[in-house]
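step: validate -> pass
step: tokenize input -> pass
step: predict -> running
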Amino acid sequence: MTALDPIIHAPKRLRIMAILSTAEAEFAYLQERLGVTAPDLSKQMRQLVDAGYVKARKTGKGPGSATWYRMTRAGDTAYARYLDQLRALTGL
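step: predict -> pass
step: emit ->
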């Protein structure tokens, strides 16, 4: 068996992937759901975006702007593989 994906395996990023597996989500929503600071969430999202697992989309400019995130096809594949590996490890 191959090692669990270290990008997804981090608890915060795993929770983000679980949320994004069902829908696109806005930065503020993710921050509230995860209970993390904006800099911490930015760091986590940067790693997911850099890995190609998540795509960011900015709307508006200035104070009314928002950043939305959605899982990419590569992210969906990696997340499904991660869950399959967990099931295999736990025998579920």
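step: describe -> The mean pLDDT is 94.
step: cleanup -> pass
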